[in-house]
Amino acid sequence: MNTIITILSVVIVICLILILLVATYNHFQDYIIRINEADVNIDAVLRKRFDLLNKSIGIIKANTKTEEEVLEGIIKLRSKKLSNFELDRSLYDAINEFHTIKEKYPELQTNEEFVRIEINLMESESEIVGLRKYYNDIITDYNKLVKSCPSNFIAMIKNYKPKDYFDGNNLEKEKGNVKL
Question: Exposure check for the chain: N or C terminus, fewer CB within 10 A?
Answer without folding.
Answer: N
